[in-house]
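RECORD TYPE: inverse folding
INPUT: structure tokens
STRUCTURE:
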């Protein structure tokens, strides 16, 4: 019998399904499994429930839409399947996708199946489990892979219609305002101010590339021995958009408190072997062969992504209240929406008080 995989837990009864019907579908499309499936659930992915399937010794991962009332355009597992399939032959490492099932009658919702990728997932941005030199290498690898993603030409991968060219920030502000309204559980004054401020302060001249939408440390699987990414996970929010906005979302790590385990604000970076955000941004720009980002524009992108993350956290909070959140930590994460909105608005106030000033980190 296999040892339990770290990060998995018994199947949540609220998100259970007919295992025998799934086995029959897998037998027809993916696996030769004849015996009953062994099913566990990953305690990751705040949006789409994700399961580990043992099918006669072959380990598979199933990702599905959650049950219950869903927000418009959310939980698009079909898009995840499409983008990872398209990226399979590129320098961006992704799990091998095996089959998509759009027949909700099989397990109660649309789902897809991919190969299980073994390796390490880090949850703490300070990387306490690694040596000093290894930490720098992990951050350099994260930087390399996101730059490789943003260098890809969507048309060459058959993804010209995966999103729209131009107007990305405008559409994102509108989308996350709508998502926030649809899942709102309380009045957050700072969020109302951000909704009014953002559309009038968008930097000009954005290019259009494939954007991940949630590129962060714990959505990456690293090789078990060396600091090399072997799979980028959770492509639900991917689309065509502004790569600088995507990179700035990734860089929110430097602007968040370490209590979240995903934050580096106030951490002694040099002593830990970690890069500061200015160096990290400069390395990305060098890899992309682009000019450095003007400080005021960079600050806009940070504020925008804080706003966007508030919308994501608000959705998590709403699902926790409804009882259909996919993670046991959903309620605690959802409570972070209001403080994050306030932090974003404070940055706007500082920016307006000091036009053109470099962002404080």
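DESIGNED SEQUENCE:
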């Amino acid at each position: 019998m296999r040892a339990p995989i770290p990060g998995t837990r018994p199947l949540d009864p609220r998100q259970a399904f007919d295992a025998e019907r799934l086995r029959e579908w897998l037998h027809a499309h993916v696996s030769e499994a004849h015996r009953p499936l062994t099913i566990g659930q990953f305690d990751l992915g705040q949006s789409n429930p994700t399961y580990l399937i043992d099918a006669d010794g072959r380990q598979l991962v199933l990702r599905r839409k959650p049950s219950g009332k869903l927000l418009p355009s959310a939980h698009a597992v079909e898009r995840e399947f499409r983008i990872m399939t398209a990226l399979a032959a590129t320098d961006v490492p992704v799990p091998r996708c095996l089959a998509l099932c759009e027949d909700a009658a099989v397990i109660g919702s649309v789902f897809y199946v991919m190969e299980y990728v073994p390796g390490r997932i880090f949850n703490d941005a300070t990387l306490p489990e690694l040596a000093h030199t290894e930490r720098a290498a992990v951050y350099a690898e994260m930087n390399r892979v996101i730059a490789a993603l943003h260098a890809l030409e969507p048309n060459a991968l058959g993804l010209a219609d995966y999103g729209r060219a131009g107007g990305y920030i405008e559409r994102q502000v509108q989308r996350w305002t709508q998502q926030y309204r649809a899942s709102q559980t309380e009045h957050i004054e700072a969020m109302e101010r951000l909704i009014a401020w953002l559309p009038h302060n968008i930097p000009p001249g954005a290019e259009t590339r494939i954007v991940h939408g949630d590129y962060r440390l714990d959505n990456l699987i690293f090789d078990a021995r060396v600091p090399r990414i072997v799979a980028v996970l959770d492509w639900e929010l991917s689309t065509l958009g502004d790569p600088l906005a995507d990179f700035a979302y990734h860089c929110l790590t430097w602007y968040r408190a370490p209590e979240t385990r995903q934050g580096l604000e106030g951490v002694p970076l040099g002593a830990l072997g970690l890069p500061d955000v200015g160096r990290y941004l400069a390395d990305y720009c060098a890899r992309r062969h682009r000019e450095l980002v003007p400080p005021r524009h960079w600050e806009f992108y940070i504020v925008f992504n804080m706003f966007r993350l508030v919308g994501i956290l608000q959705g998590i909070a709403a699902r926790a209240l409804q009882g259909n959140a996919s993670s046991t930590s959903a309620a605690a994460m959802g409570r972070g929406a209001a403080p994050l909105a306030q932090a974003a608005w404070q940055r706007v106030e500082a920016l307006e008080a000091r036009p053109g000033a470099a962002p404080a980190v």
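NOTES: The mean pLDDT is 89.
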